[in-house]
Amino acid sequence: MSFPSQPPHIVLVPSGLGPFNHFFRLAVMLASRNSIVTFINLQSQDPSPEFSPLTTFFNDHQEINRLDFDIRSLNASNSTTTSDPFIMRYEGINRSLPLIGPTLSSLLPPISSIFSDFVITATLTQLTTDLDIPLYILSTTSARFFSTVAYLPILLSKDSSKFSNSSGNIRIPGLDPVSNENIPPTWLADSPSNYLLAVYLLPNAQSLPKVKGVLLNTFDWFELETITSLKSGRVLDNLPPIFPVGPIESHDLLEKDHLFSWLHDQSAESVVYVNFGSRESMSKDQIKELENGLQICGHPFLWIREFSHDSFLIMTKNESKVMKGLKSAQNVLAHHAIGAFVNECDWESVMDAARHGVPMLAWPQHGDQKMNAEVVEKAGLGVWVKEWGWGGEKLVAGENISEMLKEIMGDLNIRFKAQTVMREAKMACENGGSSEKALGELIEMLRGKWKLG
């Protein structure tokens, strides 16, 4: 006699070292597939602003369980490696994570799997092994950058100075060579943050073969060569199964505030949308040049900024918008008035632009963003001006910014390519599409362990 399978109980344990958006989206996606989802919030003693969306999210999605667990960050006197606030918090979370073991063991129904992010892979691998719970990792970057990180243990075992400041390419099996210019500056030998490789990246990369699977927020068509090489074992032959399930749809609804009232009054594909996220790192001089470029490009613009200059806000308030604070890129990009997207190439924003077919002006600022920009350019989602370098590396004149915006807004070929990306993204998520199939395979794997009888 056969019995229906019990819905898997999936527990999400995001590190909290970055925004929760990726895990909000994942929670909704898994819950929609008849899974029981519990979201564990690892709060610090002094919750920072990124925790403020939690209440809104759980009010909107009461089918998802919330469990708060206070993780206390180490103070400076207890840090063994650095006084860097990020690393201190990283060390504190990793040291305290084993404390959630009894809580995980007591949850009902029993946990079928845990999903977390890369930055706490090493610690969670040990914990979940002890508890006999499968661990899955949600990658919040491009497949290209993920492949590079996964290959780090081999790269650095062959040559500990691989990331010197010399020019050249890094070769990874099955992938296009990675230019040394696109390696994050913090990885380079002369960077004061170079210790991040040993303390932060390497232990987690070395633990990847021990996890049950890796979810990628991307889709086959968008990064076909990289995904094929990852799945076939050409990059590494000991990686777990790879599930490209993107673009993962936003949990947000279109906001009905004065920002969107203003957008409703604009013509289709007429507005330049600018958003560099919560880590806007441009110099004051560069911000002034960007302001100038936006003013003279000839198109209305919407600039979402964490901090806004009052004088510039007043100067532009009638024909454009400068908004303080952060708005969901997904919400704005879904609006018909948006014609171009100026962004640093954080991967969540790239996937949102792909879903809605909005051409990007890629302007990488730090971290994985140059490799992400490579993907954007190769797939035809937008334009990347390599000569502009990393954020803060060069002062890009407002006239140059204006010219690029005019090109993107006026070039029908650029817009056609972005629309092609949108069609492929939608096909990937439809029944029979590559991402839908990958998600189905993942859910079946999760159900397999928990069949009754």
From TrEMBL:
Keywords attached to this entry: Glycosyltransferase, Transferase
Keyword RNA-binding: no
InterPro entries: UDP-glycosyltransf_plant, UDP_glucos_trans
GO molecular function, one term: UDP-glucosyltransferase activity
Coiled coil, from the record: none
Family, per entry: Belongs to the UDP-glycosyltransferase family.
Protein name stated in the entry: Uncharacterized protein
